[in-house]
Amino acid sequence: MSTQPDVSSTGRSATRWPATGAEQAFFLLRTVFTIAPIAFGLDKFTQVLVDWEMYLAPWINDLVPGSAHDAMMIVGVVEIVAGLLVAVRPRIGAYVVAAWLAGIIVNLLTLGDFYDVALRDFGLLVGALALGRLASDRAKR
After folding, report:
1. How many Å apart are CA 141 and CA 134, to the nearest integer?
2. How far apart are alpha carbons 76 and 82 in whole angstroms?
3. CB contact burial 64-97 (16+ within 10 A = b; e otherwise)
4. What is the pLDDT of residue 73?
5. Alpha helices (H) along the chain
6. Quick one: residue 125, left, alpha or beta (phi over 0 = left, psi -120 to 50 = alpha)?
7. What values do phi and psi take at 113, rounded to 5?
8. DSSP letter at 17?
9. How many C-beta atoms surround the C-beta of residue 128 within 10 A?
10. Is the pLDDT confidence value at 10 over 70?
11. Other beta carbons less than 10 A from residue 17's beta carbon
12. Which of 87, 85, 61, 84 is nearest to 74 (CA)?
């Protein structure tokens, strides 16, 4: 992220908010797509927010070894790794998150009860794709 160094009245170097709208959008999207997957991934282990197993379509549960709980542990690890990847390699991580969200959307649509959540996740998928485009443009500079 290109920021402009500034010197405060105390003489210390300070960092300004990114100068352009594209830099600000990149910063916001990168922050959200780092924190959210890590937070939701960690919650797969604690289930403080929700009982995640209710979101797992039976046909997917039949594909993965073990129980729905075991599947959610795997999901949690994948989400944590995806969030970390966005933090260190947003150009790649953004597309990993977008693909993961596409899988979640398919799961939710086939489950048949959570169309509202699937639509929300579609919006997140578009945001992840936007982050990927912004990250690609930054890499070209």
Report:
1. 11
2. 10
3. eeeebeebbbebbebbbbbbebbbeebbebbbbb
4. 94
5. 21-46, 58-63, 68-88, 90-111, 115-140
6. alpha
7. -115, -10
8. P
9. 26
10. no
11. 9
12. 61
| Per-residue tokens: 4 | 């402009």
Any residues with CB less than 8 A from the CB of 46 and at least 6 apart, and which? none
CA dihedral 39→43→49→51, nearest 10 degrees, is 140
Overall size of the chain counted in residues: 141
What is the identity of the amino acid at 79? E
| Contact by Cβ (8 Å): 127, 86 | no
Angle at 41 between CA 46 and CA 26, to 5 degrees: 140
Task: Give the model confidence (pLDDT) of 94-121 as tens digits.
Answer: 999 999 999 999 999 999 999 999 999 9
Token pair, residue 39, equals 């937070």
